[in-house]
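4.2 Preliminary Data

To establish feasibility before requesting continued support, the project team ran the inverse folding procedure on a target of 466 residues. The structure was first converted into the token representation described in Section 3, and no sequence information of any kind was made available to the design step. The complete token record follows.
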């Protein structure tokens, strides 16, 4: 007699339920560094099969409690529905939430909204991932004295299960305010994506050389998050292991950022991105990733001589100085700060046959072109291995990272090659190996305006360094 679903044991039914919910296929965190601009994977539909299975009989309804659910808040009405109509069991089952409520121009109290929002989040006791593209609290640009920067964190840990937080709001002021409001309320937070763009008006004495009145250093924005955490948890270290940072100022020295993040002693993964203004394929102005510095490798009798430069200094200095700065991060495992690597030759251009090229030479032209690229890439990878080795010798905990190369397509479009490296055992010796094939990243993909709008609503304008 064939068995029916209800004949199966509770254990097997729970197993079936686990795979009926597609949440298990999505990593946690589901977001990456700022140059990754994949669409959000938070999708309330992931659990529809699970919930349908749950609705088939009383036994399954009892066994398969609502869990690993996704939710999206798209407007303020959604918030009201979640307060009034959604069952408590469902609230308790939400694992991932995206808040994407556009800013409102209505005369509303942001204090009321903030308390409503934090109260709703407090009801989501299983919430592990929170992504915020827009949160409707912003009053900047309205000549309005009510400011998110003045909001206070409620006196409870209202994000008790949160491990992953991505703040992607466009307003620079709110992007700076939200980590200070949310991180202290999340005692288990391990992965944080934030912008350090901060557009608080400064004293005249603090103005930067370029006359930009609305920037403060990225390191200060990071330190402010740490200070907010310590006010709430004076005895505990922040548990953050992963930091995806978008810097406020491309010309800022990475050293001040690294000094600031050393307040997070459990930090293992550090990705730092800077952005600059450029034009998209359709000639629109976009904010695309920009390098934070260049490592210049020139051949020397002992291998490669390494010099480092970023645009806040006018001179090059020996690269060895840089890894020494990293030594204040004793647990650092992964490091990508978008350093460009350049060797003493440019990437060879592809060679094409012309109408004057004898057909008999076509094959050898192709071979020459391919060989030149192989030689170039072997030398580039060798230089990158030397750089990675210099870093791992200074910071033994470091196990992987990436270097960047700027290159151009046939149509003169700039693209980025991202070369990852990893420490592996070769002939019994641990050493960094650079990948064979880089990841190709277009400017359009690596473009967003997270935290990039000024208080007047305009996008911060910064020319590209490279
Ligand atoms: Zn704002």
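Position-by-position output of the design step:
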């Amino acid at each position: 007699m064939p068995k029916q679903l209800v004949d199966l044991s509770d254990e097997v039914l729970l197993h079936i339920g686990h795979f009926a919910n597609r949440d298990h296929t999505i990593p946690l965190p589901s977001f990456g560094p700022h140059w990754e601009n994949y669409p959000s994977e938070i999708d309330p539909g992931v659990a529809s099969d699970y919930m349908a299975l749950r609705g088939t009989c009383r036994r399954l309804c009892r066994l398969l409690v609502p869990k690993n659910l996704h939710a999206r808040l798209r407007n303020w009405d959604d918030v009201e529905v979640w307060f009034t109509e959604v069952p408590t069991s469902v609230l308790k089952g939400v694992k991932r939430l995206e808040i994407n409520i556009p800013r409102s121009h209505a005369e509303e109290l942001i204090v009321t909204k903030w308390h409503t929002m934090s109260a709703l989040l407090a009801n989501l006791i299983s919430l592990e991932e929170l992504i915020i593209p827009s949160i409707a609290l912003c009053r900047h640009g309205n000549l309005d004295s009510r400011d998110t920067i003045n909001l206070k964190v409620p006196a409870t840990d209202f994000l008790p299960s949160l491990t992953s937080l991505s703040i992607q709001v466009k307003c620079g002021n709110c992007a700076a305010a939200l980590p200070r409001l949310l991180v202290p309320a999340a005692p288990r937070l391990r992965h944080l994506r934030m912008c350090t763009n901060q557009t608080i008006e400064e004293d005249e004495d603090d103005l930067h050389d370029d006359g930009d009145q609305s920037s403060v250093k990225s390191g200060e924005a990071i330190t402010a998050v740490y200070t907010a955490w310590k006010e709430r948890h004076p005895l505990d270290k922040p548990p953050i292991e992963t930091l995806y940072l978008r810097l406020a100022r491309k010309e800022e020295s990475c050293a001040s950022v690294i000094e600031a993040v050393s307040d997070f002693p459990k930090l293992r993964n550090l990705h730092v991105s800077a952005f600059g203004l450029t034009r998209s394929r359709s000639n629109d102005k976009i904010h695309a990733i920009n390098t934070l510095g260049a490592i210049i490798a020139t051949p020397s009798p002992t291998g490669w001589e390494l010099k480092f430069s970023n645009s806040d200094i006018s001179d090059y200095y020996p690269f060895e100085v840089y890894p020494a700065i990293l030594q204040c991060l004793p647990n650092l495992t992964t490091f990508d700060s978008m350093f460009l690597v350049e060797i003493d030759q440019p990437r060879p251009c592809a060679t094409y046959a012309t109408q004057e090229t004898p057909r008999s030479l076509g094959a050898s032209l192709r071979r020459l072109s391919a060989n030149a690229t192989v030689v170039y890439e072997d030398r580039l990878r060798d230089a990158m291995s030397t750089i990675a080795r210099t870093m791992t010798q200074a910071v033994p905990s470091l196990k992987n990272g990436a270097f960047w190369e700027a290159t151009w397509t046939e149509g003169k479009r700039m693209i980025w090659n991202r070369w990852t490296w990893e420490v592996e055992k070769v002939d019994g010796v641990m050493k960094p190996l650079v990948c064979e094939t880089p990841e190709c990243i277009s400017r359009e993909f690596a473009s967003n305006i997270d935290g990039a709008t000024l208080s007047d609503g305009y996008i911060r304008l910064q020319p590209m360094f490279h």
